[in-house]
Design a protein that fits this description.
Layout lengths: L15 H18 L1 H10 L4 H19 L11 H10 L1
Length: about 90
């Protein structure tokens, strides 16, 4: 392959389903990480628990919408897909 070969210039195809599934899993895990701050806000009664609860529910809902439809999608993550996942999260 030489530098004049157009096939060298083509970027690899991103596996959008794999990226969406992985982002969904990360969002579900992120929503689980909001449980301790929610518990602390509820125990202190500082009035901020509703903000934590809303953030938890939104991130959980979006994460499940991305993850559950793609449960059967089993592909290996390539380098290009990994970069996209890190940039989006």
């Amino acid at each position: 392959m030489s530098a004049d070969d157009p096939s060298v210039w083509i970027l690899p195809r991103m596996q959008a389903a794999l990226v969406a599934r992985t982002l969904g899993i990360f969002l579900v895990l992120f929503s689980a990480a909001l449980l301790p701050p929610l518990a602390v806000a509820l125990s202190y009664g500082d009035g901020k628990a509703d903000h934590f609860a809303l953030s938890l529910l939104v991130s959980l809902a979006v994460g499940l919408m991305l993850w559950l439809p793609l449960l059967s999608n089993r592909q290996a993550i390539r380098n290009y897909d990994g970069f996209v996942i890190v940039a989006m999260f």
